[in-house]
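Section 5.1 Outputs to date
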Amino acid sequence: SNLDELAKGQFRTVIGEVDDINPTKVKRVVLCSGKIYYELMAYRREQDIKDIAVVRIEQLYPFPVDAFCAEIAKFPNAKEVVWCQEEPRNQGAWYWFASRQHLVKVLGQKQKLLLVSRPASASPAVGYYAKHNSQQKAVIENAFGPIND
């Protein structure tokens, strides 16, 4: 939520797709939280990708089930829902979601839940700027490309 919305409106737990894309042509929904959203949107616009939606989850707990379901329902042909995070696989929001099955319960059988992140790691950062940039680029690109489970 932007500052004006917070000052004059309300906090939004889920912020849906903001670009003008055809919801019936969306085959994948990328979920994220935090600043990675801006990198995802820049990449998608740069590549002119029109069949992948990007949705921000602004509140992780309690999970906003109703708002999430309403947003996902806008994309009836999306077969994949991807959680994208810049943290390693064993950290960040995914670790919390995976341990509690929040997204899997909500999605059911209709959509496949996938993860795009850095590999599991004991530390949150790799410690080398070039390696960080390389991993970050891969995370962004993988959110829009083929995903290996």
